[in-house]
Every structure is written in structure tokens, then in C-alpha cells.
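pasting for the record
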Amino acid sequence: MSEFKKNIEINVDDYIYFNRTHYSKFELRPKHAFVFSIALVLLFYIGTVIHNLSKDNNILFYISLFLAVVIVVFFVVWTAYFVLKFLMKIFNRFIYKSLFNKNVLFKNAEFTINEKGIHTFNEFISTSIVWSQILKVIENEHAFYLYYSKGQAFLFPCRYIESLDELQTFRNIIEHNTSKQITYRPLRKK
């Protein structure tokens, strides 16, 4: 019976890396704001052209109006982008601090995986999951994430794996006991 057992401590960085790995597809990025700005400007331009097809008006006025709208749209979209980024940081910090006040998630815990499943416990909580409940396994340069629901996972930081033999043992236990392939997902740059 192969078993992998370690005492680990999940810290703030581990939690942040998990969120960056799990929620990376939902993050607002500058290219989204840029594409949205271009789309609004093009819609305005097409609307102006269609509206003025039948009229013969001053073209200089419409060029000036177009440039003014471009400037206003870019200003509004980029301001909204930076305000949303700021609010997301405040929200993340609030969630982060509220989790730390509980002190349950970030205590030393014993993490064990074997043929039966995954078991972790500390002075406050004990959790066991059988292998059939594991939905997916993701690995990146910081940790292994063994998902047992869409948004919840056992997190095992790679810093506790001390040798290539331990890493291979850890991977072998996972691959042997689940039908899930370990997916390597590099951590997205900030």
C-alpha cells in the first residue's frame, strides 16, 4: 500500500496562487477594455455614416465629432477598467482578511494520500475524500490542486516535495487511483 504523508501549512501565497489558477479565465484584462473601446467607436462610426448617407453636410464637422467620441469612449472605458481593477483588489483583500480571521484554513495540517483517498486534518477540522469524488487534478509550478467540486480543491504546495522520487510517488498515487489525467497549467502572469 503506497502512501504519501506530509505536514503542510497553507499560507496566503498558496491561496492567491489557487485563485489565480482557478479564476484566471474570468479576469478582466487590458486587451478586453481595448477591444470594447474599439467596438464602441466602430459602432458610433457606422451609425454616423448610415445616418448621414442621405445628407450632404460638412465632413470636417463629422471628423471632429468622430475624434471627440473616440477620446471620450477610450477615457470612459479605461477609467471603468481601472476602477473595476481597484474594486476587485479591495474585494480580494476583504475576503482574504476575513479568511485569516478564522485561522482555520491556514493552520498546520497533516496531508495524506493513499489508495483510499485524500485525508487532511488539523486541530480544527478533518476532511476525507475518496478518489471517485476527484473531478480533476491540476499541477503548476507552485502546487497540485485536487478538485472535488467545481470551486473547491485540496491544495498541496510543491515546496513540501523534497525530491524527484517524492514527486514521482505523489504523481503515481494520483494517476493510479483516479481516471483523471494530471493537467499541467502554467501560472498566468499578473
